[in-house]
Amino acid sequence: MSRYILKRLISAIPVLLLVSITAFIIMQLVPGDAAAIIAGQDATLDEIEFIRSQLGLDQPWPARLWDWISGLAHGDLGYSFILNRPVSDAIIERLPVTLSLAGLSIAFATVMGVSLGILAAVFHRSWIDATAMTVALCGVSVPNFWFGLVGILIFSVGLGWFPPGGFVSPAESLSGWFLSMVLPALTLGTATMGQISRFTRSVMLEQLGQDYVRTAQAKGLAGRQVIGKHALKNAMIPIITVIGITFSLTMAGAIVVESVFSLNGLGRLMLHGIMRRDYPVLQGGLVVIAFSFVFINLLVDILYSWLDPRVRYD
Amino acid sequence: MTDLSTAAPQTRRIRLSLAGAHWPLLIGGVIFGLIVLAAALGPFLTPLGPEDTSLMDRFKGPSLAHPFGTDSFGRDVMTRVLYGGHVSLLIGLAVVVIAALLGVLIGAMAGYFPRLDNPIMRVMDAGEAFPTLLMAIALAAVLGPGVMNVVLALGVAYAPRTARIVRASVLVVAQQQFVEAARASGASSARIILTHLIPNALAPVIVQMTFIFADAVLAEAALSFIGIGPPPPAPTWGNIIADGRTYLYSAAWITMFPGLAIFLTVLSLNLLGDGLRDALDPRMKKVS
Lengths: 314, 288
Description:
The structure holds 2 protein chains of 2 kinds. Chain A is built from 12 helices and 2 strands; from the N terminus they run ααααββαααααααα. By secondary structure, chain A is mainly alpha-helical. Chains A and B meet through α1, α6, α7, α8 and α10 of A and α4, α5, α8 and α10 of B.
């Protein structure tokens, strides 16, 4: 097991390397003189030159790429002249907000999505199936930022149940934190919920048609046990894969949803980075999100072999 | 004669499987068709222009004269939604075309040339490690706002997904005997790829294109909403919502109608994709 984990960790290194290079290349597409853009319009030539040398832009690209990669290996994501601090500091400061949002939204999407999917599969071709799948289809089709605005209009302005935006630290007030997160998490989780429930339904239908399910039913096992202990357990591996994949959807969606609810998370940091042409922040944020995606999928892979002893990859 | 008798049941089977899946296909097709028609005929459906302002008519709620109300400049929201649909749908279509061309080309190369397979697919892995929307946001942010940049950013971002599907199909088909026969009779690699491998991968690609269209409409709207899409005053569904957001509490209609338009478009495309998948892939039909 530990050998397998080690092997998977090592195999992630080339992907991480490629991801870092991709982020580097994207930033090279900036048209014109990045140093002049960052320095602003009324900067002196000396200031521009200073930023240029600090960012290493006066060096040839292989040297810059090497600096970037070796910096990453030490946890150095670069320096933002606009924020006047290391990019990693700025990101770490914003991380609790984004992690709260992403965590709660994935939790909601998983619980709701898996339940809807199971209901739809068990009551196949009934009105329950039709209703559940309509909800799921609407979930994947609704633009999340618009859904969030509608939510604010109904539940904050109309009913006054939740604040229309802003983040409350859980250290400050746990209930305040939860209330401030309900609407954003639902908004962000809706699409994921739809995907997970559509997928859960098809995997469960496949399992429910298998011989072992018929055997379990034939020997008189209660319906709940057949579904929960037999079919769902076997359906869990593909479902977990999809949850891992939707993590990327969640992180990208967070940029938009944080903007709707004025949450100062990683997404909003990157968005401000875009507006202020703070390219180091954008590059750092990109790499953090892509790295976390790679690691989540690694975790999913490792989870497989733990869930299903038959899965051995060596 | 024998040809005819074997061909007949085949066509019947295809028709049957289409009939079995006709529900989502039909509803999705009709709704999407109506939306495309409305967007295409937009200029004829409304006497106003999308950028015609009328300071006397600011923030009017929905009425007979302005079915979707008016915005902060007194512009007719329905006119803007119709014209915005034009832009949003064309962007979606262009994204699909670029993603499909790139994806088919890259996927076919990876599937057909074993030496290229690993390097190409690792690059695709790296591309896919960035969430599609995030990749598009980064590219659009770096390239600067503009319709072409949004199209390019989204097209490139969706290409790996298509490439993966084409590669999988090419890998299977390339092993089959008729490909070997074609190669033995002297067909070039280009000919084999173009006339044998790509056509066989087309069904899943068409299904995928429908879903990418749906995704691209959502993504374009999101890009416009956060301010890095096609710049105003030209309307897109996303930037009308971004505009209306400031007046959400007092003039909700500015936000509601373009959002509904996006929702219906994406919903109909998803239905269409589901229906096409069921019709084209009988194996999936058994499950759903």
